Amino acid sequence: MRRKLILDVDTGTDDAVAVMLAALHPGLDLIGCTTVNGNIPVGFCTENTLRVLDHIGRGTIPVHEGLARPLARPDFPVPRHERDHAGRYHPDLLPVPPTALRKQATGAVEFLIETYRAATEPVTLVAVAPLSNIAAALALDPTFVERVPELVIMGGGHEIGNVTPAAEFNIWADPEAAAMVFAAGFRRVTLVPLDATHRALISREHCTLLAALGTPAGRAAADFIGHRIAVHDAHQPQGVPHTTPVHDALAVGALVEPALLTTHRLHVAVETQGALTIGRTVIDTHFRGGQPPNCEVALHADAAGFADLLLRSFAAKA
Predict the structure, then answer these.
(1) Which residue out of 81, 247, 286, 300 is catalytically annotated?
(2) Whole-angstrom Cα distance, residue 10 to residue 38?
(3) CB atoms within 10 A of CB 150
(4) Does residue 113 form part of some domain?
(5) Which CA distances in Å does 275 have to 71, 72, 164?
(6) What range does the domain containing 85 cover?
């Protein structure tokens, strides 16, 4: 049976690879995408998501636009994390053709609440963006937390930050929302932080193999990931030259291949006040806080297995 999921995104390059993986993998049934303010403004996130789905022949998957700003902070994120998250042709739009597809009339938060109220079988919620939409759904519907069987979050970091020394962008961009989500009591939460994604690096050689597949998804993934490699080489070099993490796609990939991640059951909370540490995910790896574990936290990942998954998933013709 295909695993149903909703994907919450702020679509730049790594979100785009995650969208394609969720839409094309035969073991997954992507029933909708929700978009949120993040790396780029939400309107561009929505347009990018629609373009990517159309480009790979999955234009029937609905896209619902969500919050245009953080839950509590009108000034976050300022400045944007990187104006290089989309593509070289426009600072916010991905280099795939424009589309006639349009977002749904129903907003993201309403879609989430209504979908989980009506669900008769499990639908995994995968959040690879700031958690504003998820927190808003919690605030509006007290039963939402009980209705979501599993929440997968790409965000945070234990040893690694990216937007500050202490914080990863998705959590930093709306720390109050993230704090609410981690404290809500979801039945099962899997956190895929930078510690895992930076162990599953994709290289220029992988991009060559992806492009050689000759499929729309393979060529687009090669372009998106190649752009990420150039940005990382220039501004944030990885331990292995000419590589990049593709954070969001790893979180999706683990749905169908759980062995990609090595997880530990730990307690996670989010700092919302520290001048130097705002947005930090406080991951209690040594059980010093006295709080019961609330997450499966991935601190390691299988790089070869992840690259192989992308190549297999993007090889099939649409």
Answers:
(1) 247
(2) 5
(3) 18
(4) yes
(5) 19, 17, 11
(6) 3-313
Kindly report, residue by residue over 76-89, the tens digit of the pLDDT: 665 554 444 444 43
Distances (CA, A) of 296 to 120, 138, 154, 266: 25, 21, 12, 6
Q: Which DSSP string corresponds to 234-261? A: HHS--SSTTEEE-HHHHHHHHHH-GGGE
Strands 295-301 and 261-266: antiparallel
Q: What is the pLDDT of residue 80?
A: 53
| Stretch 291-318: mean pLDDT | 95
Q: What is the CATH number of the domain that holds 20?
A: 3.90.245.10
Q: Is 247 a catalytic residue?
A: yes
Half-sphere exposure of 31 (CA within 13 A, CB side): 16
Number of domains in the chain: 1
Residue 91, pLDDT above cutoff 70: no
Answer whether residue 318 is part of any domain. Answer: no
Q: How far apart are CA 148 and CA 32, in angstroms?
A: 15
Calpha distance 278→268 (Å, rounded): 14
What DSSP element (H or E) covers 204? Answer: helix 204-212
pLDDT tens, position by position, 10-33: 999 999 999 999 999 999 999 999
The secondary structure of 15-36 as a DSSP string is: HHHHHHHHHH-TTEEEEEEEE-
